[in-house]
Amino acid sequence: MFHKEGAKIILISTFVFTILLLATPYISNNPWVLKPIQLFLVAMLLIVLQFFRNPIRTLEPNDNLVYAPVDGKVVVIEEVFEPEYFKDKRIQVSIFMSPINVHVTRYAISGKVKYSKYHPGKYLVAWHPKASTENERTTVVIENRVFGEILYRQIAGALAKRIVNYAKEGMQVRQGDDAGFIKFGSRVDMYFPLGTTINVSLNQKAIGNRTIIATK
């Protein structure tokens, strides 16, 4: 299953690569030249298709659990000052997504969207310390009846050139549903109240809608 945000790119890529594949016999009759070109084109199409994959991962919403919103690797767990919304200290958990990860963003908790804002910016590598404040990004705050307000931030990386965010202020959202998409490499930061029990460790692999990030 593929994500709807990739429909246009998948359609165009399939058309272009099909035309190129059909045209390769006109380039050369030498199989030692022809086969590598064809294999390269097929590989490029497969890369596009795998990037926009959207595996079905249903779950039963649980207000006592915060699930990973994306697939990737946990690269930050630390107490920081959050300057945009809370303007106080929070526990930050960051998940880095490589180009081969699933890039669907899912709602980590259920609740009401209290804040949703897009920020244009730079395209520093996603693991850069300043990426969360200087890169293109969206900031979303969801108020949950158990955890209170939880902030998550979609951050574009060096390859990501478009962030899609479905959260609108005032919306009621359901844990596990699609929250957006970040195209071609990125990071998601989450900010929790101090004292929250964090259930992941640095460098741990996270799976969206499967890995429990925090518990109450």
Our estimate of the beta-strand percent is 35-45%
Structural class assignment: alpha+beta
Number of strands: 14
Question: H/E order of the elements?
Answer: HHEEEEEHEEEEEEEEE
- Integer-rounded radius of gyration: 20 Å
Anisotropy-based shape: elongated
User: What is the makeup of the main sheet?
Assistant: 8 strands, antiparallel
Helix segment count? Answer: 3
Low-confidence stretches: none
| Average pLDDT taken over every residue | 87
Q: What spatial order of strands do you see in the largest sheet?
A: 9-5-6-7-11-3-2-13
Distance between the termini: 33 Å
Helical content (DSSP H or I, runs of 4+): 10-25%
Brief overview, please?
With 216 residues, the chain is α+β, with helices and mostly antiparallel strands.
Please explain how this structure is put together:
The protein is an alpha+beta fold. Helix content is 19%, strand content 37%. The chain has three helices and 14 strands. It has helices at 7-23, 31-51, 131-134; strands spanning 65-67, 72-82, 88-97, 104-106, 111-119, 137-144, 148-156, 162-165, 172-173, 178-183, 186-192, 197-198, 205-206, 212-215. Strands 9-5-6-7-11-3-2-13 form an eight-stranded antiparallel sheet. A three-stranded antiparallel sheet has the order 1-14-12, with no helix packed on it. It has a three-stranded antiparallel sheet with strand order 4-10-8, with no helix packed on it. It is elongated. The two termini are 33 Å apart. The model has no long low-confidence stretch (mean pLDDT 87).
